[in-house]
Design goal:
The chain folds into 2 domains: 25-218, Growth Hormone, Chain: A; 220-271, no CATH class. The model is unreliable at 250-254 and 264-271 (pLDDT under 50). The protein has helices at 2-13, 25-42, 45-48, 51-57, 62-86, 92-113, 120-139, 141-151, 158-184, 195-213, 222-230, 252-270. Helix 6 (92-113) runs antiparallel to helix 8. By secondary structure, the protein is mostly helical. It contains 12 helices and no strands. It is elongated, with a radius of gyration of 22 Å. The longest helix has 27 residues, at 158-184.
Length: 271
């Protein structure tokens, strides 16, 4: 079975290159897969996950703050488990929009809480809001990203598109790793909670992008997605437009599905 799967994938990728990911409708699919993955960073999780820092601002000793940080990881895990039951019932686009809206609001509030002179209640409130942020991320952007990255690319270019999207994520992660420490470091910018304003700006940008550019792939077959992308259907209309794959004998999506079927059949005969 492993040999069969490997040979099938080799046949599907035959004649393709990374340049194909930037041609025609595949350019849009590459953009979506890349930005969806970049959103895991741009939503502000690098900043929002620092519950320990905000609790220390509230006067907690480092040991107790660390314990709360471990608890926050448990909240994130619970959120991810909850997503298993939410995703089959709620669309990916909806989860991204709701999740980013909540995270944007939390970052904005934390930013305003960082303006006054630090007080224990401000640290408490900021820490509690960050826990809500992490829980929201765990249910929405965190796990849903991987569904979208797998569903959006075309069949023949899926592996190459995922590679490009992952590289885009890593580039943004490197930038975030340089940006976030000085925001919180008392010897650098020392913005404290006001750093939420910086990250809520990034979060707002991907929220707007999600509304206009992220389609809803839930419940759609590979062929239906191919037709919708080929026709240039607006992201907001993906669930409104009805397509019949059997009436589109000349569309590229059907050709790709046929190629998949032929490759699978040929490989099965060899096995």
């Amino acid at each position: 079975m492993i040999a069969h799967t490997n040979e099938l994938e080799l046949q599907l990728q035959e004649g393709t290159s990374y340049l194909d990911c930037f041609r025609g409708p595949n350019l849009r699919r590459t953009e979506i897969a890349s930005v969806v993955w970049m959103t895991q960073v741009l939503c502000g999780i690098w900043f929002g996950g620092n519950v320990t820092y905000f609790l220390q601002q509230a006067g907690f000793n480092p040991d107790k703050s660390f314990d709360f940080g471990i608890g926050t990881n448990g909240i994130a895990l619970a959120g991810t488990i909850a997503s298993w039951f939410v995703m089959p019932r709620v669309g990916r686009r909806t989860l991204y929009l709701v999740g980013l809206s909540v995270m944007f609001t939390v970052l904005m509030v934390v930013g305003f809480l960082g303006i006054p002179t630090p007080r224990p209640w401000i640290g408490w409130t900021s820490g509690a809001l960050m826990m809500i942020f992490v829980a929201t991320y765990g249910v929405t952007v965190g796990p849903v990203c991987y569904c979208l990255v797998a569903e959006i690319p075309s069949t023949r270019l899926r592996i190459k598109t995922v590679v490009l999207a992952r590289n885009a994520y890593l580039i943004v992660s490197i930038v975030a790793n340089f940006l976030n420490p000085p925001i919180l470091n008392p010897t650098a910018w020392n913005l404290r909670g006001k750093g939420g304003f910086i990250w809520c700006g990034f979060c707002l940008s991907v929220l707007v992008w999600t509304y206009f550019r992220l389609p809803e792939p839930k419940g759609l077959s590979t062929t239906e997605l191919d037709i919708l992308f080929e026709d240039g259907v607006s992201a907001r209309d993906f669930r409104k437009v009805h397509v019949d794959p059997f009436e589109r004998g000349n569309n590229k999506g059907e050709e790709e599905d046929a190629r998949v079927a032929i490759a699978a059949s040929a490989t099965t005969e060899k096995v």
